[in-house]
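Whiteboard transcription, Tuesday session. T.W. wrote the structure tokens on the left side:
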């Protein structure tokens, strides 16, 4: 029996797997498993509290960004797990700045320096 394929629009038998079907990404890496641990959840909570639940890079520009926040590992977990729960090597960022930091657009040492300083609210 044939069926219309939702991926390529052609007709295939029911047991055929279309090569146009997107592949599921398996994310069971050591880093991903770590992100589900209580140690990470506690570290993330401390870092967010320290950063006043604000994006630290937006705060440098005088903006208060409360939405779309996540905790960024300044040293990526894929490179080293040594600093995974070290508050000084984590920083709260908005989605835009987090993507840019992951892409290497911000110097790690400067992010580390910023993480070690208490946040300064605009006057």
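and on the right, the sequence the group agreed on:
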């Amino acid at each position: 029996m044939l069926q219309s394929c939702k991926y390529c629009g052609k007709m295939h038998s029911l047991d055929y797997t279309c090569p146009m079907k997107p592949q599921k990404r398996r994310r069971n890496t050591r880093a991903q498993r770590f992100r589900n641990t209580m140690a990470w959840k506690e570290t993330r909570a401390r870092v967010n509290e320290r950063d006043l639940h604000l994006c630290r890079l937006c705060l440098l520009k005088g903006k208060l960004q409360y939405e779309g926040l996540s905790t960024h590992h300044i040293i990526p977990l894929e490179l080293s797990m040594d600093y995974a729960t070290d508050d000084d090597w984590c920083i709260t960022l908005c989605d835009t700045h987090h993507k840019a930091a992951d892409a290497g657009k911000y110097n790690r040492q400067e992010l580390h320096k910023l993480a070690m300083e208490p946040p300064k609210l605009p006057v």
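Someone added at the bottom: DSSP finds five helices and four strands in the chain.
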